[in-house]
Amino acid sequence: MFGCLVAGRLVQTDAVQVASDKFVFNLPDYESLNHVVVFMLGTVPFPAGMGAAVYFSFPDPASGPVWQLLGFISNDKPSAIFKISGLKAGVGGTHPFGMMASSASPSVAQVGVSVEALDQLVQQIPVSSAAVSTVGSYLQFTQKMLDSLYNFVASFAVSQAQMTPNPTETFIPSSCVLRWYENFQRRMAQDPNFWKS
Length: 197
Known about the structure:
Elements: E1 2-5, E2 16-19, E3 22-28, E4 35-40, E5 50-58, E6 66-74, E7 79-83, E8 108-117, H1 118-121, H2 135-154, H3 174-190
Antiparallel strand pairs: 1-4, 2-3, 3-8, 4-7, 5-6, 5-8
Helix pairs in contact: 2-3
């Protein structure tokens, strides 16, 4: 019913069913993982009004597994990518797994899938660091990069009177850099994906 994919590894479709509505994927050597994709195989849809919460668990031999809600999948959203590299070990919340799915190895993390009612799923709040980059964060990065470039270039600004002739260097008027900076900002505001064409 479900699959799990980690970059550089084979697709896992062999989830361990730990309860009638709960499944677990084991992720060995989880320390090197950045993202995980959880998806429906397409063979069995969810019953009407149902979906599945997706959890991630760090192994913790001292206190047992610590589960963190990543998000959910449904018939309308049959797959999701989650960033797990920013999650903190030892920080967890309420979850439906209890100790039923604890890993036997300290280097094996787990992804849990719990089938639940959609109206409950949409009310749950996933760990914020599990969200994958969005256009908003891309725009924010681009804005910071533009600001950094402009500030760096402007730090070398000299007046024409301060310039010393050097035939091996090319000088660019700061007004040109400023014009490029403003045009790029305007185009990003109109269409964040303009650079792809």
